[in-house]
Amino acid sequence: MFTIINNIKISKNFYLSEFECKDGNHQVVIDSELIDKLQKLRDYLGQAIVINSSYRNESHNKSVGGSPNSQHLKGKAVDIRRIEGLTIDEMVAIAEDAGFNGIGKYNWGIHIDVRENKARWDMRG
Protein backbone atom coordinates (compact mmCIF):
# COMPACT_ATOMS: atom_id res chain seq x y z
CA MET A 1 0.00 0.00 0.00
CA PHE A 2 1.14 3.55 -0.64
CA THR A 3 0.27 7.00 0.63
CA ILE A 4 -0.63 9.82 -1.72
CA ILE A 5 1.32 12.94 -0.86
CA ASN A 6 -0.79 16.12 -0.59
CA ASN A 7 -4.02 14.10 -0.39
CA ILE A 8 -5.78 17.15 1.03
CA LYS A 9 -9.17 18.27 -0.23
CA ILE A 10 -8.94 21.95 -1.19
CA SER A 11 -12.38 22.40 -2.75
CA LYS A 12 -15.53 20.38 -3.34
CA ASN A 13 -13.95 18.40 -6.19
CA PHE A 14 -10.19 18.96 -6.09
CA TYR A 15 -7.26 17.65 -4.07
CA LEU A 16 -3.94 19.40 -3.55
CA SER A 17 -2.14 16.42 -5.13
CA GLU A 18 -3.72 17.25 -8.51
CA PHE A 19 -1.74 20.51 -8.57
CA GLU A 20 1.71 19.10 -7.72
CA CYS A 21 4.69 19.69 -9.95
CA LYS A 22 5.03 16.60 -12.16
CA ASP A 23 8.77 16.24 -11.49
CA GLY A 24 8.15 13.80 -8.64
CA ASN A 25 9.07 16.10 -5.74
CA HIS A 26 5.45 16.85 -4.73
CA GLN A 27 5.98 20.62 -4.70
CA VAL A 28 2.84 22.72 -4.89
CA VAL A 29 2.21 26.42 -5.26
CA ILE A 30 -1.36 27.38 -5.99
CA ASP A 31 -3.30 30.61 -6.17
CA SER A 32 -6.66 30.52 -4.35
CA GLU A 33 -8.31 32.40 -7.23
CA LEU A 34 -7.34 29.54 -9.55
CA ILE A 35 -9.02 27.02 -7.26
CA ASP A 36 -12.18 29.13 -6.97
CA LYS A 37 -12.54 29.56 -10.74
CA LEU A 38 -11.64 25.96 -11.47
CA GLN A 39 -14.32 24.77 -9.03
CA LYS A 40 -16.81 27.14 -10.69
CA LEU A 41 -15.90 25.60 -14.05
CA ARG A 42 -16.28 22.07 -12.64
CA ASP A 43 -19.69 22.91 -11.12
CA TYR A 44 -20.91 24.31 -14.44
CA LEU A 45 -19.71 21.28 -16.41
CA GLY A 46 -21.07 18.74 -13.96
CA GLN A 47 -18.25 16.35 -14.83
CA ALA A 48 -14.64 15.71 -13.89
CA ILE A 49 -11.82 17.92 -15.08
CA VAL A 50 -8.50 16.17 -15.68
CA ILE A 51 -5.51 18.38 -14.94
CA ASN A 52 -2.52 17.56 -17.16
CA SER A 53 -0.23 20.16 -15.60
CA SER A 54 -0.46 22.76 -12.86
CA TYR A 55 2.41 24.12 -10.75
CA ARG A 56 5.87 23.77 -12.30
CA ASN A 57 9.15 24.58 -10.61
CA GLU A 58 11.75 26.28 -12.79
CA SER A 59 13.65 23.13 -13.77
CA HIS A 60 10.50 21.20 -14.69
CA ASN A 61 9.10 24.16 -16.60
CA LYS A 62 12.33 24.35 -18.61
CA SER A 63 12.32 20.58 -19.25
CA VAL A 64 8.82 20.69 -20.76
CA GLY A 65 9.59 23.75 -22.90
CA GLY A 66 7.48 26.13 -20.84
CA SER A 67 7.73 29.89 -21.19
CA PRO A 68 10.22 31.53 -18.79
CA ASN A 69 7.29 33.76 -17.71
CA SER A 70 4.78 30.90 -17.43
CA GLN A 71 1.85 31.31 -15.07
CA HIS A 72 2.52 27.68 -14.06
CA LEU A 73 5.61 28.94 -12.19
CA LYS A 74 3.36 31.11 -10.02
CA GLY A 75 0.69 28.49 -9.31
CA LYS A 76 -1.80 30.48 -11.37
CA ALA A 77 -2.36 28.04 -14.27
CA VAL A 78 -3.62 24.60 -15.21
CA ASP A 79 -3.68 22.68 -18.44
CA ILE A 80 -6.82 20.58 -18.68
CA ARG A 81 -7.56 17.68 -20.95
CA ARG A 82 -10.24 18.01 -23.62
CA ILE A 83 -13.63 17.31 -22.06
CA GLU A 84 -15.65 14.65 -23.81
CA GLY A 85 -18.62 16.06 -25.68
CA LEU A 86 -17.13 19.56 -25.98
CA THR A 87 -15.00 21.18 -28.66
CA ILE A 88 -11.95 23.19 -27.69
CA ASP A 89 -13.81 26.38 -28.64
CA GLU A 90 -16.75 25.40 -26.41
CA MET A 91 -14.34 24.76 -23.54
CA VAL A 92 -12.81 28.21 -24.08
CA ALA A 93 -16.23 29.90 -24.01
CA ILE A 94 -17.07 28.17 -20.72
CA ALA A 95 -13.66 29.09 -19.25
CA GLU A 96 -14.23 32.71 -20.23
CA ASP A 97 -17.61 32.65 -18.47
CA ALA A 98 -15.88 31.24 -15.37
CA GLY A 99 -13.57 34.28 -15.35
CA PHE A 100 -10.20 32.94 -16.54
CA ASN A 101 -8.02 35.68 -18.06
CA GLY A 102 -5.37 33.59 -19.81
CA ILE A 103 -6.69 30.94 -22.19
CA GLY A 104 -4.72 28.91 -24.71
CA LYS A 105 -6.10 26.40 -27.20
CA TYR A 106 -4.23 23.17 -27.91
CA ASN A 107 -5.13 19.90 -29.67
CA TRP A 108 -5.12 18.07 -26.31
CA GLY A 109 -7.23 20.62 -24.39
CA ILE A 110 -6.84 24.12 -22.97
CA HIS A 111 -4.51 26.11 -20.77
CA ILE A 112 -6.35 28.39 -18.33
CA ASP A 113 -4.93 30.86 -15.85
CA VAL A 114 -5.73 33.75 -13.54
CA ARG A 115 -3.16 36.30 -14.75
CA GLU A 116 -4.06 39.97 -14.34
CA ASN A 117 -4.55 40.84 -18.02
CA LYS A 118 -6.48 39.08 -20.74
CA ALA A 119 -4.42 36.85 -23.04
CA ARG A 120 -5.54 34.42 -25.76
CA TRP A 121 -3.56 32.10 -28.06
CA ASP A 122 -4.20 29.15 -30.35
CA MET A 123 -1.50 26.49 -30.72
CA ARG A 124 -3.60 23.91 -32.54
CA GLY A 125 -1.87 22.57 -35.60
Q: What features would you describe in this structure?
A:
The protein is α+β, with helices and mostly antiparallel strands. It contains three helices and five strands; from the N terminus they run αβαβαβββ. Strands 1-2-4-3-5 form a five-stranded mixed sheet, covered by helices on one side. Helix 1 (32-45) crosses helix 3. It is globular.
Features:
alpha+beta, 5-stranded mixed beta sheet, globular
Structural class determined from secondary elements:
alpha+beta
User: Which ranges are low-confidence, i.e. pLDDT below 50, for 5 or more consecutive residues?
Assistant: none
- The average pLDDT is 95
How many runs of DSSP E, i.e. beta strands? Answer: 5
Encode the helix/strand succession as letters: HEHEHEEE
What is the overall shape?
globular
Helical fraction: 10-25%
Layout of strands and helices, then pairs:
Elements: H1 32-45, E1 51-53, H2 58-63, E2 77-81, H3 88-98, E3 102-106, E4 109-113, E5 119-122
Parallel strand pairs: 3-5
Antiparallel strand pairs: 1-2, 2-4, 3-4
Helix pairs in contact: 1-3
Give a concise summary.
Helix content is about 25%, strand content about 20%. The chain is built from three helices and five strands. The radius of gyration is 14 Å and the shape is globular.
